[in-house]
Structures are given as structure tokens and as C-alpha cells.
Design brief:
The structure is a single chain. By secondary structure, this protein is mostly helical. It folds into 7 domains: about 35 residues, no CATH class; about 250 residues, Up-down Bundle (Ferritin); about 140 residues, Ferritin, CATH 1.20.1260.10; about 160 residues, no CATH class; about 140 residues, no CATH class; about 100 residues, Globin-like (Orthogonal Bundle); about 60 residues, no CATH class. Helices cover about 45% and strands about 5% of the residues. It contains 37 helices and 17 strands. The strands form 5 sheets. The protein has a 4-stranded mixed beta sheet with strand order 9-7-6-16, with helices on one face. The chain has a 4-stranded mixed beta sheet with strand order 8-14-15-17, with no helix packed on it. The protein has a 4-stranded antiparallel beta sheet with strand order 10-11-12-13, with helices on one face. Helix 29 crosses helix 31. The longest helix has about 35 residues. It starts with 6 loop residues before the first strand and ends in a 5-residue tail after the last helix.
Length: about 1100
């Protein structure tokens, strides 16, 4: 026992300093609270121990992390041990108290998680890795200083006194609970000069944190704050991630002290005011608990919980073992969920390349695991028998760690892959237990769903995974199939009581029946998320009654057949298959597909029938949900057929909707619903889809560009951002041509600035200089603008038709690489209500760019955010060699090249202009087709090419101009491709007829699968409070390359002159949070920029 001078004993073992000030206003408190308040107060705090170097600070912060972690487990164990219903022998007033105690103890446990996060912010701030490891409980002897012990205890006097002991304020000498032995020995404080960190003695948790606080102050005074706080600011967890207002970023001494103050004020109270702190709450609960025992000696609010493990600990510590095999399996499931929670938490604090959205996903996953897995499983376990070795006892969650050392996954893609894989294994384990242990089967249904939903959310927020054929994406993972069926059950429950006599309801019942039987990989998840979900919404929207009603609403015209089906279905999915059979017996077109097929050929037939029924039905209804379901059914019906039969079925679907106008409609917070518009990929190749298509616009689909229902799972919001670039059309008048530009609709593709940088300027004002280039080049650049932001006028009259290609382009949607959908050919664009979507001022209606990453500030139009958030399409699987066609960029790139060659370079060439003057005006397109076929475009058989007879000099000039056109068109510049291209061009100068088969040549394939991308620069060092702020040292590093590029149309953020000139505007944008466009700066960065502007803007 640790003593502090002359003490007085109270009957409960609480001893306080005799010099403590008396506390007034004690009415309404229990005996114990009054005793402590009357005698207690703040005595002189213990002397802080020595922290002389960074490693010692890291070591003690790791001790703090372990302590917070272990204490949190203790609190959860006690909370789970409490009874939850009157059936367990509690009177109504007793149940009210017990429920409140459980909520209070659980809330304290949640705050311990906050404290653990703050400790990790402190670790991260000084450059250390996260520390989630701890010894399994009970602790081994002497793990902590003398008197500090942790053990899993059920709720009661012993546990409450133990919790009070752990949370006691500094200066309070309080005995630990009876039966909690003081093990170990006091550890001497470190001496100055010791280099190896070690455990040091601390009397209380407050003593530990005050010593850490003093160590931080000491090291900052000794070496400077910039030396100490070397961790990246972006690694800090804040309120935006975990929704704790008290979760502050630690970047300096002041914020470190604020974090420590938060921990101590919540635990022991604000410098001794303990009544509302954890200590005071436990005092109050113990007072109430003892009063209840006095009122009713038989009062027993606790289940007969035994702290027992699934398996024996590695250390020689006596721990009871669970001898009931079923209970052991459920406890193992709890521990798996707990392990995944820690792994995700650790990944969050050790993240490297994660985007802000991915960090929020990790944070949300930890919260979901806590409330949807840990809490319900913890409560369930305390009702399960410990086994024959422990008669009459139940168990509590054991919080067993499989790794007592940190299990850090340092590589982002591998880490997310392993997390998703482990979540899938958890789903499988849950389903196995459900099948083997019927007594807990129903209680585990939401647990399996929670694991599956978290897995689905992780995969949805990591799009580059789609590059590799992961089992969970393809639906091969049994856990994915199970989770999909559970989601189907939820949608069935939504419509179970609604009139089943309508065509959408029949269609739903038929599709639902297919999910009850085996199907190829991917079919059941797609049916659940892209067919049943929208169909359930369609049924509900028809106004037949509230989802989940047990009978048709008053005034309904439900048929007897529909009423009977609804009654059969009841209020849940368990009887929905029977309802489906009831509908099927009537013989409607959709209902014919109810009876599940026994073979894949039968499945193909059923899916085709459903797709035909849905396509016909959408023609008779304006419900967008039917369009979404029809799109998925058309795609599924084709996908299960042999490749050779798919085109015929698509043609059949096209015939069914031949009278439908070409259109794009946006579903509310959902996909683009496309009708009768051709779709091509970034290479210009057709995307093999049906005539009704749902295109992803949330950025999370695993089936890009098709929608897979991810938008519903991740809560996609299609609202415009109020901080988007203003909708303003600017006019730039020149001598021959006037150019119009609206930055508010620009997708920032760079096609104009890359093509003629003397006209469209990134580093000068004004942005457009119409006299800076040839008029024909400006016309080509304006017409090539994919977003519709540019237009032009001659002699004061806008040339809208010329800008919009005189209406000659066929309707098409191009799925660009890692970017937006580029729409051309005057495709109508409508919103959910069918009305035209409002365009920006002067924007083209012939062509536009639609957001595909889900992050645009100007939805549905692209604002360039895909570049900022690192949106990526699937890449080639490892070992797969790209063709020259793919590497070049496909038809769009080759067409740009040949257009430059035959429309600009050759007409300007004094030697070749006359030779090609009489050439076919379609020469550029035919040359691009010929090159594409030679470079390996799939299924391409270009028409034979006739070439004029050229002299040696003309051939040499033609080849040189070809290579220049390739460079100006932005084709890849790597040596391997340029070598292969040069050899091809030399050959093509004399070749005619059929296109040859051209390969990579002697240099082979480039070593990288994709063009290298720049890595994110490290977080810049911010100047200290007394340090002069300079542009080169402090301001320029604040702006990343992407920031400089994105704002280059206004000013150059890397130019001292430009930033000095526009300092007020830049500061205004930074303060308003609309620059950079991928997220507002933290306050400390803005403060540095403001200091620079207020101190003379030094270079």
C-alpha cells in the first residue's frame, strides 16, 4: 500500500489527508460520497518521475496505452455481467437502477477508448507507432508498479472498489478492493543519463500522466517543440473521425497538455474535483448498490459470471477454462471481433496512403464493431454456461489477445485485404455457430450481418482492390453469399405486409426466390443489392402501405390473392418464400420465375424471364427503382450465359425498348440510369452491357463502371457542395475569336492547357488569351473540351453549333481512366423527377463530364475531385502484359494523334501539304483504326489502307511528324513504347493494305504496369511561435503539387510574386475552406499563412 503522511481511516477503507479542505453542499450524496467529500481534497501531488529522452517518453506512453486498454476491458466485463430484464429476478425500480448502472459503466468504458485514442495521438505526435498490445488478463505479477493490478471482475462491491482505486485522484490514499493483491515491487525512478527506457513507479494514473506531461514540457524546453513533435499532423485522430469533441489533435506542448487534461479530468476530476469524473461516478454507484442491499438483502443484479478463458494462457497464471464447447466457440467469436477492432484501430493510427474517406471508413468500422458486435456478443456470453467444470456459472467475455505484441500491418493494400479477409472469416464462423448451436442462432443473425456489412464497406472504399480477382468481390466467399441472403431477408421484411398483387411485388417475390438456392459467384449479392433493394423501394413507393405492415392499408384494393400472400408472409422474411410460392401459383409473367431452378441453365432461363418482365414493366412505369432493377437483371441474365449467346440476348432486350428515347437519369443518392446510349471504355472499346444500364456514381462499386448497390450501403449523398467553384461565365475577347469559359463546370482535364498553353494559361492572367494562338487550334481546343465549359464566338455571335459539332456525334458515354464519364451526342440528362438537370451558365448540352468518383463538389457534374482523392480504376493483374493499344491509351489517344497529324502538322508542312491535299477527309480516323488494329485492339479488323507514294525525304518527314503528333497528343513517353512506336512509324511510311501485328520490340514491355505517379510530399514543418516566417522555407511547402496545379488558372502558388500579389484572396479562400478543393486546411496552417501576410511577406 502506498502511503502519504498521517491518515484517517473510514469504515470503508478510504483514507484521506487530514489537511484536505472541507467540501460544502453534501446533501443528496451517499454515505461513501459524503465521507470522501468531507474528509477528502487535493493533497500535494507526487513528484513526477524522470523522462530525459524520447524513448523514455514513448515507453511510458505505451504503458499508459496498455493501462487504458486493460481498464476499458475491465469496465466492459463488469457492465456485461449485469442483468437486463425483470425475468432475471429484478423489481421494476431495481431494474431501472441496474440499467442506469450498466449505461454509466459502459459510458466510462467508451471514454477509456477516447483516452486510448488521445494517448495514440500523443504517440503519433512524437513519431512513435501505435501500441494496442497488452498482456492478457489477469495481469502477470509485477507487470505494473506495486499495487497496480488489473483483473476481469463481475459487477459488485469488489469491482467498484477496485475501479475507484484505479481512478482515484492524486493525493488520495485509498485501499484496493479485498482480494486484489498488491503484487510486484516498487520500481525506482530513472536517473539522468540512463539511455535504456524502463518501467518507473507511479502511484496513481494521475501520477503517470502528470509525469508524462512534465516529460513533454522538459524535452520541449531542452530540445525545442519542432524537435519533439515530428509526427505528421495528418496522422492525428480528431472529432471528424470519431465524433468525440474532446479528441484533439496533438501537435505541440499546449495541445499535448490539453489531451492529458482531458484524460485526467474525465478520470479523476479537474485537479481534484472528482464528483462528475469516473471516480465520482463509481463512488455514487457503490453508494446506491449498498443502499439497495440494505433495502433488500436478496438483491442480486449480477449474473453468476465467471472470468474464464477459452484456452490456457501462455504464462503460468491460473485461469479457469470454459468447459462448455458451444460457449467456448461464441467466446472465440467475441475475441475475433475484438481482435479485428484492434487491428482496424491500429491501422488507423499507423496509416500511410489512406484518403480522408478511407480514414473515416476505418473509424466508422471501429464504432460499428463496438456497438454491433462487441456489445451484443458480450451481453450474450454472460448468459451462456461455463460448462460442467463450473456448475451454475456463466462466463463473461475473456478479451483474449492472440498476439500480445503489436500486430501492425504496415502496407495499405495488404492491410485492407487482410482486414476484409478476416471479417469474411468472422462471418463464416458466425454462420457455423448458428448452424451448430440453434439456441443462439437467432441472436447471431445481426452479428453476421454486422461483420458482413463492415467487410462490404471496407471493400467499397478501396477501389484499387478491384484489380485482382478477390474471392469476396467475385462472390466466391461463402460469407459474402450468406450476408447477401441476409440482406435479401431484410428487403423481404420491408415488403412482407404490403399488397403482393402488383407487378413490382410479383417481380420482387420471383427475384427473392432465386436467392434461396445455389447460384454462380456474384449472382446472389447482385440480386440482393441491385434488384431486391430497388424493387422493395418501388413497392413501398407505390403507396400500398408502410414497409413492414401486417396487412394492406385502409382503403387498399388488394386482391384476395395479394391479401393471402401478405398474410402468408407475416411480418418477416422467414415466411416470405412461402408468400412467393403463393404468388407463383397464379401464373403471372414475373411469378413464373418463382420456382427455383435446379441447374445453372434453369437459372439462366429464370433470370432471362425476370429481365424481360422488368424491361416491359419499366416501360409502363415511371418508377426509377424499376429501371435500376431492370438494368441489373439484364446484366445478370447475360452474365450467366455463354459468351457466344450474350449478344443475341442484348439484342432481344434492345428490341423490347427500341421505342425508348436515349437518356440519362440520376437516381436520388443513387446511380446514373442510362437508356439506349452506347458506352465505351477509356480505350474506346464497347462496354458489353444491355440497353438499360445503371452506372456507378458513388465511386465504391466493385463492378465499375456498373452499379452494384454500394451507394446504399455507404450512404452516398448526391448534394452539391456549397463551397464549390462559383457558376460564372467569363468572356475573353480576341481579334478573331472570343472564348467563353465557365470554371464552375470545368472538370480540369487539362486538354486545353496541354494543347495550346499560350492561349489557355496556367501561370498567367487572364486565363484565356485568345490572341495567343492560331484560330483553328483554338477552335479545335474548344470543341475538344469534355466538360462543356468552353464555347466561342465570331463577330459577336456565339458559334454554339460549331462548338457542339453541329449535332453530328452519336450519343455515347466514355468511361475515362480514373476519371469521369464523358457524355457526348446531346444525350438528355434528367433528375429523379424527370426534369432536366440545371446546367451551368453557357454550358454545352451536347457534351458534359459526369462525376464517377462520388466526391465531386458539383454533382452530378465532375469538378476534378477524382484526381485529388486518388480515384482509381482496376489495373492489370500482376503478370498480365499490356498491348501497345492499351498502353497508348486506346482509340481516344490514337485519334488525337492522327487528328493532329492530318489536321495540323501535315497541312503546315511545306513538303507534305501538297502530297496529302487530296487525301480522304476521313483519313485521320482510318489511320487511327489501322494503328489500333496493328497495336492489338481486340476484335478490330481495320479496312485496308492506301497510302500515297512518298519519296525517301517525304517518308522521313512523315515519320518525324507522326512522332511529334504522338508527343503533342500525350501518348506515353517511356523508352519502350517510343521505341516500338518509332519502329512502327518507319514501317508504316511505306506499308499499305491490311494492318500488321505489331509487338513491343527488342526493349520489351515497360517495367511498371502504369505510368508512375508522384508520391505525396511529407507534411511540412511549421515555424515556431518566435520564428520568422519565410515564403521559401514555410509558405511554398504548405502547397502541394496538386494544389499548385489546380489553382494555376488563377495564380501560381509556388511563385513568390503571385502569392504576394494575391495574398488576401488566397487567405480568404483558405479561411473559407474552399482551397484546396480536397479539404480545408487545419487552423495551424492557416495561422502560419496569416502570420506571413502580417509580417512583411518575407521571401
Amino acid at each position: 500500500m502506498m502511503g502519504f503522511g498521517r491518515l484517517h481511516d473510514d469504515p470503508k477503507g478510504t483514507r484521506m489527508s487530514e489537511n484536505a479542505p472541507e467540501t460544502p453542499n453534501l446533501t443528496g450524496q451517499g454515505d461513501l460520497a459524503r465521507t470522501i467529500a468531507a474528509r477528502g481534497g487535493l493533497a500535494a501531488p507526487e513528484e513526477p518521475f524522470v523522462i530525459e529522452h524520447r524513448e523514455a517518453l514513448i515507453y511510458m506512453l505505451c504503458q499508459a496505452a496498455e493501462l487504458e486498454h486493460g481498464i476499458m476491458c475491465q469496465y466492459l466485463f463488469a457492465a456485461f455481467s449485469l442483468k437486463t430484464s425483470a425475468e432475471e429476478g429484478l423489481e421494476a425500480d431495481e431494474l431501472e437502477k441496474v440499467t442506469r448502472w450498466r449505461k454509466l459503466v459502459s459510458h466510462v468504458a467508451t471514454q477509456e477508448m477516447l483516452h486510448l485514442s488521445l494517448v495514440h495521438n500523443l504517440l503519433s505526435a512524437i513519431g512513435a507507432a501505435p501500441h494496442m498490445a497488452r498482456p492478457n488478463l489477469p495481469l502477470p505479477a509485477a507487470h505494473y508498479p506495486a499495487g497496480v493490478q488489473l483483473a476481469l471482475l463481475p459487477f459488485g462491491e469488489q469491482s467498484l472498489r477496485h475501479f475507484m482505486f484505479l481512478e482515484r485522484p492524486e493525493g488520495m490514499d485509498l485501499d484496493d478492493a479485498e482480494g486484489i493483491q498488491s503484487l510486484g515491487r516498487a520500481a525506482a525512478h530513472m536517473e539522468q543519463g540512463e539511455i535504456v527506457p524502463r518501467l518507473q513507479d507511479f502511484a496513481t494514473v494521475g501520477h503517470l500522466y502528470r509525469s508524462i506531461e512534465r516529460g513533454i514540457e522538459h524535452l520541449a524546453e531542452k530540445y525545442g517543440e519542432r524537435w519533439l513533435f515530428v509526427g505528421p499532423h495528418r496522422a492525428q485522430a480528431t472529432q471528424k473521425h470519431f465524433r468525440w469533441p474532446e479528441l484533439v489533435a496533438v501537435t505541440d506542448v499546449a495541445s499535448a497538455k490539453l489531451a492529458i487534461d482531458t484524460i485526467l479530468e474525465q478520470g479523476e476530476g479537474a485537479r481534484g474535483d472528482w464528483r462528475d469524473a469516473h471516480f465520482g461516478q463509481f463512488v455514487k454507484i457503490l453508494d446506491e448498490y449498498e443502499q439497495c442491499l440494505r433495502d433488500n438483502p436478496d438483491f442480486d443484479p449480477v449474473r453468476p459470471v465467471l472470468a474464464a478463458n477459452v484456452r490456457a494462457p501462455e504464462r503460468d497464471i491460473p485461469v479457469p477454462l470454459i468447459s462448455d464447447p458451444d460457449t467456448a466457440r461464441v467466446t472465440d467469436l467475441f475475441n475475433v471481433g475484438y481482435e479485428i477492432l484492434l487491428q482496424i484501430f491500429e491501422r488507423f493510427f499507423a496509416h500511410t496512403e489512406e484518403s480522408d474517406a478511407q480514414l473515416r471508413t476505418l473509424a466508422d468500422a471501429t464504432v460499428a464493431l463496438m456497438f454491433s458486435v462487441i456489445r451484443p456478443l458480450g451481453e450474450l456470453i454472460t448468459t451462456l454456461p461455463a460448462g460442467p467444470d463450473h456448475p451454475g456459472k456463466t462466463v463473461g467475455p475473456s478479451f483474449e489477445l492472440f498476439y500480445e505484441t503489436d500486430y501492425l500491418m504496415p502496407h495499405r493494400e495488404a492491410a485492407w485485404t487482410l482486414l476484409a479477409e478476416r471479417l469474411g472469416e468472422a462471418v463464416t464462423l458466425t454462420d457455423d455457430i448458428r448452424a451448430d448451436v440453434p439456441a443462439v442462432g437467432e441472436q447471431l443473425v445481426p452479428i453476421a450481418k454486422a461483420f458482413a456489412d463492415i467487410q462490404s464497406t471496407l471493400t467499397a472504399h478501396f477501389p484499387s482492390w478491384n484489380a485482382h480477382a478477390r474471392p469476396e468481390i467475385l462472390g466466391l466467399d461463402p460469407a459474402v453469399q450468406t450476408a447477401a441472403r441476409q440482406r435479401a431477408d431484410e428487403f423481404a421484411a420491408r415488403v412482407a405486409g404490403i399488397d403482393a398483387g402488383t407487378e413490382p411485388a410479383d417481380l420482387f417475390a420471383a427475384a427473392y426466390a432465386l436467392t434461396r438456392h445455389p447460384a454462380p459467384a456474384g449472382v446472389i449479392p447482385r440480386l440482393a443489392d441491385s434488384v431486391l433493394r430497388p424493387l422493395s423501394e418501388a413497392v413501398v413507393r407505390q403507396g400500398l402501405g408502410p414497409a413492414g405492415a401486417s396487412s394492406p392499408p385502409s382503403g387498399s384494393t388488394a386482391t384476395p390473392r395479394a391479401t393471402a400472400a401478405a398474410q402468408t408472409a407475416g411480418a418477416g422474411p422467414q415466411n416470405f418464400a412461402a408468400a412467393a410460392e403463393s404468388v407463383a401459383s397464379t401464373g403471372s409473367a414475373a411469378a413464373a420465375a418463382i420456382h427455383a431452378p435446379a441447374t445453372e441453365s434453369g437459372l439462366a432461363e429464370r433470370l432471362q424471364e425476370l429481365a424481360v418482365a422488368a424491361t416491359r414493366l419499366r416501360g409502363r412505369s415511371d418508377l426509377l427503382e424499376l429501371v435500376e432493377a431492370a438494368a441489373a437483371l439484364q446484366d445478370l441474365a447475360c452474365a450467366v450465359l455463354p459468351v457466344s449467346e450474350r449478344a443475341g440476348l442484348r439484342a432481344e432486350f434492345a428490341g423490347l425498348q427500341a421505342e425508348f428515347a436515349a437518356s440519362i437519369r440520376t437516381a436520388k443518392n443513387g446511380p446514373y440510369l442510362v437508356t439506349n446510349v452506347a458506352i465505351v471504355d477509356h480505350l474506346g472499346l464497347p462496354v458489353e452491357v444491355g440497353p438499360t444500364v445503371a452506372l456507378c456514381r458513388c465511386g465504391a462499386s466493385a463492378l465499375k463502371p456498373l452499379c452494384d448497390g454500394s451507394h446504399a450501403r455507404i450512404g452516398f449523398n448526391d448534394a452539391k457542395d456549397p463551397a464549390r467553384v462559383a457558376d460564372r461565365r467569363d468572356t475573353y475577347a480576341g481579334e478573331q475569336i472570343t472564348v467563353f469559359d465557365n470554371r464552375g463546370i470545368c472538370q480540369h482535364s487539362g486538354l486545353c492547357t496541354d494543347r495550346i498553353s499560350t492561349v489557355f494559361r496556367t501561370a498567367a492572367e487572364p486565363f484565356v488569351a485568345p490572341n495567343g494562338g492560331r484560330m483553328d487550334e483554338i477552335v479545335r481546343a474548344v470543341r475538344a473540351c469534355p466538360s462543356g465549359a468552353l464555347s466561342m464566338a465570331f463577330d459577336g455571335v456565339e458559334a454554339r453549333d460549331l462548338t457542339d459539332w453541329n449535332g453530328t456525334r452519336e450519343p455515347v458515354i466514355e468511361v475515362t481512366k480514373d476519371g469521369p464519364y464523358r457524355v457526348r451526342g446531346s444525350v438528355p440528362l434528367a433528375g429523379p423527377d424527370g426534369g432536366d438537370i440545371e446546367r451551368a451558365q453557357g454550358a454545352s448540352t451536347e457534351h458534359c463530364a459526369l462525376c464517377r468518383c462520388g466526391q465531386s463538389r458539383n454533382k452530378p457534374f465532375c469538378s476534378g475531385m477524382h484526381w485529388y482523392v486518388g480515384f482509381q480504376d482496376p489495373v492489370l493483374a500482376p503478370g498480365q502484359e499490356p498491348t501497345l493499344f492499351e498502353w497508348a491509351g486506346g482509340y481516344p489517344a490514337l485519334t488525337r494523334m492522327t487528328a493532329l497529324l492530318y489536321e495540323k502538322l501535315i497541312p503546315d508542312d511545306p513538303v507534305l501539304a501538297a502530297v496529302f491535299a487530296a487525301a480522304d477527309p476521313d483519313r485521320a480516323r482510318r489511320e487511327a483504326d489501322w494503328m489500333a488494329a496493328a497495336f492489338g485492339a481486340p476484335g478490330m479488323a481495320a479496312e485496308p489502307l492506301a497510302r500515297p507514294v512518298l519519296t525517301d525525304e517525304q517518308r522521313e518527314r512523315w515519320a518525324r511528324l507522326c512522332l511529334r503528333a504522338a508527343r503533342d497528343a500525350g501518348l506515353p513517353a517511356d523508352p519502350e513504347f517510343r521505341s516500338a512506336l518509332a519502329a512502327f512509324v518507319e514501317f508504316a511510311a511505306t506499308a499499305e493494305g491490311e494492318a500488321p501485328e505489331w509487338d513491343w520490340g527488342p526493349l520489351g514491355v515497360p517495367s511498371a504496369e502504369a505510368a508512375p505517379t508522384g508520391t505525396e510530399a511529407a507534411e511540412p514543418d511549421l515555424p515556431g511561435p518566435d520564428e520568422a516566417v519565410g515564403f521559401a522555407a514555410h509558405i511554398k511547402p504548405l502547397f502541394r503539387e496538386k494544389d499548385q496545379r489546380s489553382m494555376s488558372f488563377v495564380f501560381d502558388l509556388w511563385s513568390l510574386d503571385d502569392v504576394t500579389k494575391h495574398a488576401a484572396e488566397i487567405l480568404g479562400r483558405l479561411t473559407a475552406g474552399n482551397m484546396p478543393c480536397d479539404g480545408a486546411w487545419p487552423a495551424e496552417k492557416i495561422a502560419v499563412f496569416r502570420r506571413w501576410t502580417e509580417t512583411g511577406m518575407r521571401p
